[in-house]
Design brief:
Blueprint lengths: L1 H7 L5 H17 L47 H26 L11 H9 L9 E3 L5 H6 L4 H9 L23 E2 L8 H14 L9 E6 L6 H12 L4 E7 L2 E2 L2 E2 L12 H4 L3 E6 L3 H18 L3 E6 L18 H10 L2 H11 L5 H24 L19 H17 L4 H7 L7 H8 L1
Helix pairs in contact: 1-2, 3-12, 3-13, 4-10, 6-13, 7-8
The protein binds thiamine diphosphate (TPP) and magnesium ion.
Protein backbone atom coordinates (compact mmCIF):
# COMPACT_ATOMS: atom_id res chain seq x y z
CA UNK A 1 0.00 0.00 0.00
CA UNK A 2 2.67 2.47 1.10
CA UNK A 3 4.83 1.36 -1.81
CA UNK A 4 2.03 2.09 -4.21
CA UNK A 5 1.60 5.51 -2.61
CA UNK A 6 5.33 6.18 -2.92
CA UNK A 7 5.32 5.39 -6.59
CA UNK A 8 2.80 8.15 -7.32
CA UNK A 9 4.27 10.84 -5.04
CA UNK A 10 6.82 13.42 -6.05
CA UNK A 11 10.17 12.66 -4.34
CA UNK A 12 10.54 16.19 -3.05
CA UNK A 13 7.08 16.38 -1.44
CA UNK A 14 6.61 16.15 2.37
CA UNK A 15 4.04 13.39 1.73
CA UNK A 16 6.77 11.33 0.06
CA UNK A 17 9.15 11.64 3.00
CA UNK A 18 6.32 10.76 5.45
CA UNK A 19 5.33 7.69 3.46
CA UNK A 20 9.01 6.74 3.03
CA UNK A 21 9.68 6.80 6.79
CA UNK A 22 6.54 4.73 7.39
CA UNK A 23 7.76 2.24 4.84
CA UNK A 24 11.18 1.98 6.53
CA UNK A 25 9.59 1.54 9.96
CA UNK A 26 7.39 -1.26 8.61
CA UNK A 27 10.40 -3.01 7.10
CA UNK A 28 12.40 -2.67 10.32
CA UNK A 29 9.66 -4.55 12.16
CA UNK A 30 10.34 -7.64 10.11
CA UNK A 31 14.12 -7.44 9.93
CA UNK A 32 15.63 -10.30 11.98
CA UNK A 33 18.38 -8.01 13.32
CA UNK A 34 15.85 -6.09 15.36
CA UNK A 35 15.05 -9.10 17.56
CA UNK A 36 18.61 -10.47 17.80
CA UNK A 37 20.15 -9.95 21.27
CA UNK A 38 23.02 -7.47 21.38
CA UNK A 39 26.35 -8.70 22.86
CA UNK A 40 29.69 -6.98 23.38
CA UNK A 41 31.75 -10.21 23.26
CA UNK A 42 33.17 -11.39 19.96
CA UNK A 43 31.73 -14.89 19.59
CA UNK A 44 31.98 -16.62 16.24
CA UNK A 45 30.05 -19.84 15.99
CA UNK A 46 30.14 -22.90 13.79
CA UNK A 47 28.16 -26.10 13.95
CA UNK A 48 31.31 -28.22 13.84
CA UNK A 49 33.53 -26.20 16.16
CA UNK A 50 33.04 -28.43 19.20
CA UNK A 51 31.58 -31.88 19.82
CA UNK A 52 28.96 -30.48 22.19
CA UNK A 53 27.62 -28.26 19.46
CA UNK A 54 27.10 -31.14 17.03
CA UNK A 55 23.51 -31.95 16.21
CA UNK A 56 22.51 -35.11 18.12
CA UNK A 57 21.16 -38.27 16.48
CA UNK A 58 17.75 -39.55 17.54
CA UNK A 59 17.77 -43.30 18.16
CA UNK A 60 15.45 -45.78 19.90
CA UNK A 61 17.10 -49.20 19.48
CA UNK A 62 20.75 -49.94 20.19
CA UNK A 63 22.99 -51.97 17.93
CA UNK A 64 21.45 -55.25 19.10
CA UNK A 65 17.84 -54.14 18.91
CA UNK A 66 17.44 -53.30 22.62
CA UNK A 67 15.41 -50.14 23.40
CA UNK A 68 17.60 -47.35 24.82
CA UNK A 69 16.91 -46.32 28.39
CA UNK A 70 13.97 -43.91 28.47
CA UNK A 71 13.17 -44.50 24.79
CA UNK A 72 9.51 -44.13 23.91
CA UNK A 73 8.80 -46.70 21.24
CA UNK A 74 6.13 -46.01 18.63
CA UNK A 75 2.93 -48.01 18.78
CA UNK A 76 3.84 -51.23 17.11
CA UNK A 77 2.18 -54.63 17.17
CA UNK A 78 3.31 -57.97 15.80
CA UNK A 79 1.54 -57.52 12.45
CA UNK A 80 3.13 -54.12 11.78
CA UNK A 81 6.55 -55.42 12.86
CA UNK A 82 6.21 -58.33 10.40
CA UNK A 83 5.21 -55.99 7.61
CA UNK A 84 8.17 -53.68 8.26
CA UNK A 85 10.58 -56.59 8.44
CA UNK A 86 9.29 -58.30 5.30
CA UNK A 87 9.67 -55.12 3.31
CA UNK A 88 13.14 -54.51 4.70
CA UNK A 89 14.15 -58.03 3.72
CA UNK A 90 12.56 -57.71 0.30
CA UNK A 91 14.93 -54.91 -0.70
CA UNK A 92 18.22 -56.86 -0.40
CA UNK A 93 16.52 -59.89 -1.99
CA UNK A 94 15.63 -57.79 -5.01
CA UNK A 95 19.08 -56.21 -4.97
CA UNK A 96 20.90 -59.53 -5.02
CA UNK A 97 18.82 -61.03 -7.79
CA UNK A 98 18.77 -57.93 -9.98
CA UNK A 99 22.48 -57.41 -9.39
CA UNK A 100 23.14 -60.83 -10.92
CA UNK A 101 20.66 -60.14 -13.71
CA UNK A 102 22.56 -56.98 -14.54
CA UNK A 103 25.83 -58.90 -14.58
CA UNK A 104 24.30 -61.17 -17.23
CA UNK A 105 23.67 -58.07 -19.34
CA UNK A 106 19.87 -58.37 -19.14
CA UNK A 107 19.22 -54.96 -17.60
CA UNK A 108 21.52 -51.98 -17.43
CA UNK A 109 21.88 -51.16 -13.75
CA UNK A 110 20.31 -51.26 -10.35
CA UNK A 111 20.68 -50.29 -6.67
CA UNK A 112 18.75 -50.21 -3.22
CA UNK A 113 18.54 -49.19 0.75
CA UNK A 114 16.41 -50.36 3.92
CA UNK A 115 15.48 -48.97 7.41
CA UNK A 116 15.41 -45.35 6.28
CA UNK A 117 13.15 -46.12 3.34
CA UNK A 118 10.75 -48.55 5.00
CA UNK A 119 10.64 -46.67 8.33
CA UNK A 120 9.77 -43.42 6.57
CA UNK A 121 7.33 -45.06 4.14
CA UNK A 122 5.41 -46.48 7.08
CA UNK A 123 5.08 -43.01 8.62
CA UNK A 124 3.64 -41.38 5.50
CA UNK A 125 -0.02 -41.45 4.59
CA UNK A 126 -1.22 -43.79 1.86
CA UNK A 127 -4.85 -44.41 2.64
CA UNK A 128 -6.84 -42.95 -0.18
CA UNK A 129 -6.70 -40.52 -3.07
CA UNK A 130 -5.45 -37.86 -0.64
CA UNK A 131 -2.21 -39.66 0.10
CA UNK A 132 1.10 -37.89 0.61
CA UNK A 133 2.95 -37.20 -2.61
CA UNK A 134 6.43 -38.69 -2.86
CA UNK A 135 9.41 -37.47 -4.85
CA UNK A 136 12.42 -39.74 -4.75
CA UNK A 137 16.01 -39.84 -5.97
CA UNK A 138 16.34 -43.53 -6.98
CA UNK A 139 16.89 -45.62 -3.83
CA UNK A 140 13.27 -45.28 -2.76
CA UNK A 141 11.67 -48.25 -4.50
CA UNK A 142 10.77 -49.53 -1.00
CA UNK A 143 8.29 -46.67 -0.61
CA UNK A 144 6.48 -47.88 -3.70
CA UNK A 145 6.54 -51.50 -2.53
CA UNK A 146 5.17 -50.40 0.85
CA UNK A 147 2.35 -48.65 -0.98
CA UNK A 148 1.40 -51.80 -2.87
CA UNK A 149 3.32 -51.40 -6.14
CA UNK A 150 3.76 -55.02 -7.17
CA UNK A 151 6.97 -56.94 -7.78
CA UNK A 152 5.77 -57.54 -11.35
CA UNK A 153 5.60 -53.78 -11.86
CA UNK A 154 9.10 -53.34 -10.43
CA UNK A 155 10.45 -55.95 -12.84
CA UNK A 156 8.46 -54.56 -15.76
CA UNK A 157 10.06 -51.16 -15.19
CA UNK A 158 13.58 -52.57 -14.83
CA UNK A 159 13.19 -54.61 -18.02
CA UNK A 160 11.23 -51.89 -19.80
CA UNK A 161 8.67 -54.40 -21.03
CA UNK A 162 5.09 -53.94 -22.26
CA UNK A 163 3.75 -54.00 -18.68
CA UNK A 164 5.90 -51.08 -17.56
CA UNK A 165 3.36 -48.62 -16.17
CA UNK A 166 6.07 -46.15 -15.12
CA UNK A 167 7.17 -45.13 -18.59
CA UNK A 168 6.39 -47.79 -21.23
CA UNK A 169 10.01 -48.89 -21.28
CA UNK A 170 11.38 -45.50 -22.18
CA UNK A 171 13.17 -44.78 -18.92
CA UNK A 172 16.36 -46.13 -17.40
CA UNK A 173 15.92 -48.95 -14.85
CA UNK A 174 14.79 -47.87 -11.35
CA UNK A 175 13.25 -44.67 -12.71
CA UNK A 176 9.87 -45.60 -11.29
CA UNK A 177 6.76 -43.49 -11.25
CA UNK A 178 3.14 -44.19 -10.38
CA UNK A 179 0.30 -41.68 -10.11
CA UNK A 180 -1.82 -44.38 -8.45
CA UNK A 181 0.75 -44.63 -5.66
CA UNK A 182 1.34 -40.86 -5.53
CA UNK A 183 4.94 -41.37 -6.58
CA UNK A 184 6.42 -38.81 -8.96
CA UNK A 185 8.64 -40.26 -11.67
CA UNK A 186 12.33 -40.38 -10.74
CA UNK A 187 14.52 -38.15 -12.86
CA UNK A 188 18.25 -38.73 -13.40
CA UNK A 189 19.70 -35.26 -12.80
CA UNK A 190 20.35 -35.07 -9.07
CA UNK A 191 18.32 -32.78 -6.80
CA UNK A 192 15.76 -31.63 -9.37
CA UNK A 193 13.08 -33.15 -7.13
CA UNK A 194 13.95 -30.78 -4.25
CA UNK A 195 12.53 -27.50 -5.61
CA UNK A 196 9.81 -29.49 -7.38
CA UNK A 197 8.71 -30.92 -4.02
CA UNK A 198 8.31 -27.40 -2.61
CA UNK A 199 6.03 -26.70 -5.58
CA UNK A 200 4.07 -29.94 -5.13
CA UNK A 201 3.54 -29.15 -1.44
CA UNK A 202 2.46 -25.61 -2.29
CA UNK A 203 -0.08 -27.00 -4.76
CA UNK A 204 -1.35 -29.37 -2.05
CA UNK A 205 -1.76 -26.45 0.31
CA UNK A 206 -3.76 -24.56 -2.28
CA UNK A 207 -6.09 -27.50 -2.94
CA UNK A 208 -8.93 -27.35 -0.39
CA UNK A 209 -9.42 -31.14 -0.24
CA UNK A 210 -5.70 -31.72 0.41
CA UNK A 211 -4.87 -28.74 2.64
CA UNK A 212 -3.89 -29.89 6.15
CA UNK A 213 -4.34 -33.49 4.93
CA UNK A 214 -1.43 -34.23 2.61
CA UNK A 215 2.24 -33.41 2.48
CA UNK A 216 4.92 -33.87 -0.17
CA UNK A 217 7.78 -36.11 1.00
CA UNK A 218 11.04 -35.59 -0.84
CA UNK A 219 14.04 -37.92 -0.60
CA UNK A 220 17.60 -37.13 -1.63
CA UNK A 221 21.16 -38.16 -0.82
CA UNK A 222 23.76 -36.04 0.97
CA UNK A 223 25.60 -35.83 -2.34
CA UNK A 224 22.57 -34.40 -4.12
CA UNK A 225 22.41 -31.78 -1.34
CA UNK A 226 25.59 -30.26 -2.81
CA UNK A 227 23.61 -29.18 -5.86
CA UNK A 228 22.30 -25.63 -6.19
CA UNK A 229 18.81 -27.10 -6.51
CA UNK A 230 18.99 -28.17 -2.85
CA UNK A 231 19.35 -24.54 -1.77
CA UNK A 232 16.78 -23.34 -4.29
CA UNK A 233 14.30 -25.87 -2.90
CA UNK A 234 14.97 -25.07 0.74
CA UNK A 235 14.71 -21.35 0.05
CA UNK A 236 11.45 -21.81 -1.80
CA UNK A 237 9.97 -23.99 0.94
CA UNK A 238 11.13 -21.58 3.60
CA UNK A 239 9.89 -18.33 2.06
CA UNK A 240 6.70 -19.59 0.42
CA UNK A 241 5.61 -21.93 3.22
CA UNK A 242 4.39 -25.34 2.16
CA UNK A 243 4.07 -28.75 3.87
CA UNK A 244 7.12 -30.42 2.38
CA UNK A 245 9.08 -33.04 4.28
CA UNK A 246 12.69 -33.27 3.17
CA UNK A 247 14.33 -36.59 3.97
CA UNK A 248 18.08 -36.45 3.45
CA UNK A 249 19.58 -39.93 3.28
CA UNK A 250 23.15 -39.43 4.48
CA UNK A 251 24.82 -42.72 3.62
CA UNK A 252 28.36 -41.38 3.64
CA UNK A 253 29.04 -41.54 -0.09
CA UNK A 254 28.09 -39.93 -3.37
CA UNK A 255 29.37 -42.72 -5.60
CA UNK A 256 33.11 -42.55 -4.73
CA UNK A 257 33.10 -39.15 -3.00
CA UNK A 258 32.95 -39.54 0.78
CA UNK A 259 30.61 -37.22 2.70
CA UNK A 260 33.52 -35.36 4.32
CA UNK A 261 34.48 -34.12 0.87
CA UNK A 262 30.90 -32.96 0.21
CA UNK A 263 30.65 -30.53 3.11
CA UNK A 264 32.59 -28.99 5.98
CA UNK A 265 29.53 -28.31 8.17
CA UNK A 266 27.59 -30.64 10.45
CA UNK A 267 26.01 -32.84 7.81
CA UNK A 268 22.86 -31.76 6.03
CA UNK A 269 20.86 -31.14 9.23
CA UNK A 270 22.90 -28.03 10.08
CA UNK A 271 21.50 -26.34 6.98
CA UNK A 272 17.85 -26.57 8.08
CA UNK A 273 18.00 -23.87 10.81
CA UNK A 274 19.66 -21.51 8.32
CA UNK A 275 16.41 -21.62 6.39
CA UNK A 276 14.22 -21.47 9.50
CA UNK A 277 13.15 -25.08 8.97
CA UNK A 278 12.46 -27.50 11.86
CA UNK A 279 15.14 -30.16 11.63
CA UNK A 280 16.04 -33.48 13.22
CA UNK A 281 18.85 -35.96 12.70
CA UNK A 282 17.92 -39.61 13.09
CA UNK A 283 19.73 -42.93 13.10
CA UNK A 284 18.83 -44.17 9.61
CA UNK A 285 19.62 -47.76 10.55
CA UNK A 286 16.97 -47.81 13.29
CA UNK A 287 13.64 -48.40 11.60
CA UNK A 288 11.61 -47.45 14.69
CA UNK A 289 13.52 -44.19 15.20
CA UNK A 290 13.02 -43.26 11.54
CA UNK A 291 9.31 -44.09 11.75
CA UNK A 292 8.90 -41.97 14.91
CA UNK A 293 10.88 -39.00 13.58
CA UNK A 294 9.10 -38.97 10.23
CA UNK A 295 5.66 -39.27 11.86
CA UNK A 296 6.37 -36.24 14.04
CA UNK A 297 7.96 -34.37 11.13
CA UNK A 298 4.86 -35.03 9.04
CA UNK A 299 2.61 -33.82 11.87
CA UNK A 300 4.62 -30.58 12.06
CA UNK A 301 4.44 -30.11 8.31
CA UNK A 302 0.67 -30.29 8.46
CA UNK A 303 0.24 -28.30 11.65
CA UNK A 304 2.48 -25.40 10.58
CA UNK A 305 2.00 -25.73 6.83
CA UNK A 306 5.79 -25.47 6.62
CA UNK A 307 8.81 -27.50 5.60
CA UNK A 308 10.62 -29.93 7.93
CA UNK A 309 14.02 -31.55 7.37
CA UNK A 310 14.99 -35.04 8.57
CA UNK A 311 18.56 -36.22 8.09
CA UNK A 312 18.81 -40.02 8.30
CA UNK A 313 22.35 -41.23 9.00
CA UNK A 314 23.43 -44.56 7.55
CA UNK A 315 26.26 -46.15 5.61
CA UNK A 316 26.02 -47.40 2.04
CA UNK A 317 27.19 -51.01 2.36
CA UNK A 318 26.51 -51.84 -1.28
CA UNK A 319 28.29 -50.48 -4.31
CA UNK A 320 26.73 -47.25 -5.58
CA UNK A 321 25.12 -49.11 -8.47
CA UNK A 322 25.91 -52.03 -10.68
CA UNK A 323 28.29 -49.82 -12.65
CA UNK A 324 30.43 -49.23 -9.57
CA UNK A 325 33.13 -51.22 -7.75
CA UNK A 326 33.34 -49.47 -4.37
CA UNK A 327 36.42 -51.45 -3.28
CA UNK A 328 38.41 -49.24 -5.61
CA UNK A 329 37.92 -46.36 -3.15
CA UNK A 330 37.17 -47.91 0.28
CA UNK A 331 38.44 -50.84 2.30
CA UNK A 332 36.52 -54.10 2.11
CA UNK A 333 37.06 -54.54 5.88
CA UNK A 334 35.32 -51.21 6.61
CA UNK A 335 32.25 -52.35 4.69
CA UNK A 336 32.21 -55.77 6.35
CA UNK A 337 32.47 -54.10 9.78
CA UNK A 338 29.55 -51.80 9.08
CA UNK A 339 27.44 -54.69 7.78
CA UNK A 340 28.09 -56.62 10.98
CA UNK A 341 28.01 -53.89 13.62
CA UNK A 342 25.23 -51.67 12.39
CA UNK A 343 22.96 -53.77 10.26
CA UNK A 344 19.42 -52.29 10.23
CA UNK A 345 17.81 -55.62 9.40
CA UNK A 346 19.61 -57.53 12.15
CA UNK A 347 18.84 -54.81 14.68
CA UNK A 348 15.13 -55.01 13.99
CA UNK A 349 15.12 -58.80 13.82
CA UNK A 350 16.72 -58.97 17.30
CA UNK A 351 14.10 -56.53 18.57
CA UNK A 352 11.31 -58.75 17.18
CA UNK A 353 12.92 -61.86 18.66
CA UNK A 354 13.09 -60.19 22.08
CA UNK A 355 9.31 -59.71 21.87
CA UNK A 356 8.73 -63.31 20.84
CA UNK A 357 7.52 -62.17 17.39
CA UNK A 358 10.20 -63.87 15.30
CA UNK A 359 12.41 -66.95 15.23
CA UNK A 360 14.81 -68.86 13.00
CA UNK A 361 12.01 -70.83 11.26
CA UNK A 362 10.13 -67.66 10.37
CA UNK A 363 13.38 -66.18 9.05
CA UNK A 364 14.09 -69.19 6.83
CA UNK A 365 10.49 -69.28 5.54
CA UNK A 366 10.51 -65.56 4.74
CA UNK A 367 13.84 -65.63 2.91
CA UNK A 368 12.79 -68.60 0.80
CA UNK A 369 9.41 -67.05 0.00
CA UNK A 370 10.83 -63.66 -0.98
CA UNK A 371 13.48 -65.24 -3.18
CA UNK A 372 10.84 -67.37 -4.84
CA UNK A 373 8.52 -64.37 -5.42
CA UNK A 374 11.31 -62.25 -6.87
CA UNK A 375 12.54 -65.03 -9.16
CA UNK A 376 9.01 -65.75 -10.42
CA UNK A 377 8.50 -62.09 -11.19
CA UNK A 378 11.87 -61.85 -12.85
CA UNK A 379 11.21 -64.86 -15.14
CA UNK A 380 7.83 -63.48 -16.08
CA UNK A 381 9.27 -60.04 -16.92
CA UNK A 382 12.04 -61.61 -18.97
CA UNK A 383 9.54 -63.48 -21.14
CA UNK A 384 7.46 -60.40 -21.99
CA UNK A 385 7.93 -58.26 -25.07
CA UNK A 386 8.67 -54.56 -25.10
CA UNK A 387 5.92 -52.06 -25.90
CA UNK A 388 5.09 -51.38 -29.54
CA UNK A 389 7.99 -49.56 -31.17
CA UNK A 390 5.75 -46.63 -32.07
CA UNK A 391 5.38 -45.85 -28.36
CA UNK A 392 8.82 -44.27 -28.61
CA UNK A 393 7.15 -41.23 -30.12
CA UNK A 394 4.05 -40.94 -27.94
CA UNK A 395 3.63 -38.85 -24.77
CA UNK A 396 6.70 -36.74 -25.54
CA UNK A 397 4.61 -33.59 -25.60
CA UNK A 398 0.97 -32.97 -24.79
CA UNK A 399 -1.48 -32.02 -27.54
CA UNK A 400 -0.87 -32.39 -31.25
CA UNK A 401 2.25 -34.20 -32.39
CA UNK A 402 4.88 -31.57 -33.32
CA UNK A 403 6.77 -31.64 -36.64
CA UNK A 404 10.09 -32.78 -35.17
CA UNK A 405 8.60 -35.90 -33.58
CA UNK A 406 6.69 -36.64 -36.81
CA UNK A 407 9.92 -36.32 -38.79
CA UNK A 408 11.80 -38.67 -36.47
CA UNK A 409 8.99 -41.23 -36.63
CA UNK A 410 8.94 -41.08 -40.41
CA UNK A 411 12.72 -41.46 -40.56
CA UNK A 412 12.63 -44.57 -38.39
CA UNK A 413 9.77 -45.99 -40.45
CA UNK A 414 11.87 -45.48 -43.60
CA UNK A 415 14.82 -47.28 -42.03
CA UNK A 416 12.54 -50.09 -40.89
CA UNK A 417 11.33 -50.60 -44.45
CA UNK A 418 14.89 -50.72 -45.72
CA UNK A 419 16.64 -52.82 -43.05
CA UNK A 420 13.85 -54.18 -40.81
CA UNK A 421 13.73 -57.67 -42.23
CA UNK A 422 16.74 -57.53 -44.54
CA UNK A 423 19.44 -57.11 -41.92
CA UNK A 424 19.86 -59.70 -39.15
CA UNK A 425 20.77 -57.33 -36.22
CA UNK A 426 17.62 -55.28 -36.97
CA UNK A 427 15.44 -58.35 -37.35
CA UNK A 428 16.68 -59.65 -34.02
CA UNK A 429 16.16 -56.35 -32.24
CA UNK A 430 12.68 -55.86 -33.72
CA UNK A 431 11.58 -59.28 -32.51
CA UNK A 432 11.86 -57.98 -28.92
CA UNK A 433 9.03 -55.49 -29.56
CA UNK A 434 5.35 -56.26 -29.54
CA UNK A 435 4.29 -56.68 -33.21
CA UNK A 436 7.95 -56.54 -34.33
CA UNK A 437 7.68 -52.85 -35.23
CA UNK A 438 4.78 -53.56 -37.64
CA UNK A 439 2.72 -50.84 -35.93
CA UNK A 440 4.95 -48.15 -37.44
CA UNK A 441 4.73 -49.61 -40.94
CA UNK A 442 0.96 -49.99 -40.66
CA UNK A 443 0.58 -46.42 -39.47
CA UNK A 444 2.54 -45.22 -42.49
CA UNK A 445 0.39 -47.09 -44.97
CA UNK A 446 -2.96 -46.11 -43.43
C1 LIG B 1 23.36 -33.26 -11.67
C2 LIG B 1 23.98 -34.62 -11.60
N1 LIG B 1 25.30 -34.74 -11.37
C3 LIG B 1 25.87 -35.97 -11.30
C4 LIG B 1 25.11 -37.09 -11.49
C5 LIG B 1 25.77 -38.47 -11.42
N2 LIG B 1 25.41 -39.13 -10.16
C6 LIG B 1 24.40 -40.02 -10.11
S1 LIG B 1 24.17 -40.60 -8.57
C7 LIG B 1 25.41 -39.66 -7.94
C8 LIG B 1 25.76 -39.70 -6.47
C9 LIG B 1 24.66 -39.18 -5.61
O1 LIG B 1 24.98 -39.37 -4.26
P1 LIG B 1 23.94 -39.16 -3.12
O2 LIG B 1 23.09 -37.99 -3.43
O3 LIG B 1 24.68 -39.13 -1.84
O4 LIG B 1 22.99 -40.42 -3.22
P2 LIG B 1 23.29 -41.95 -2.89
O5 LIG B 1 23.64 -42.59 -4.20
O6 LIG B 1 24.41 -42.01 -1.92
O7 LIG B 1 22.02 -42.49 -2.36
C10 LIG B 1 26.02 -38.91 -8.93
C11 LIG B 1 27.16 -38.00 -8.72
C12 LIG B 1 23.73 -36.92 -11.75
N3 LIG B 1 22.92 -37.95 -11.93
N4 LIG B 1 23.20 -35.68 -11.79
MG1 LIG C 1 24.98 -40.65 -0.46
Amino acid sequence: MIRRELSVLSRSSPAFSRAFSQCLARRREVLPTTSSPIVSKLDFFNSVSTKEKQIPTFRLLDGVGKPLEGAELPEIDEALAHRLYEHMQLLPTLDNILYNVQRQGKISFYYGEEATIIGSASALDMDDERSDGTLGQYREMGVLLWRGFSLDKVMAQCFGNEEDTSGKGRQMPVHFGSPEHHFHTISSPLATQIPQAAGVAYALRRTPSRRSRSIAACYFGEGAASEGDFHAGMMLASTIPSPVLYIARNNGFAISTPANEQYNGDGIASRGPGYGIDTIRVDGNDVLAVMTAVKEARRRCLEQGRAVLVEAMSYRVGHHSTSDDSFAYRARAEVEDRKRIDNPITRFRLFMESRGWWNADAEAELKARLKDDVLKSFRRAESLKRCELGELFTDVYGGEEPWNIREQRQELTGLLKKYGQAWEPWRKELSKFKNNGEDLLKRESS
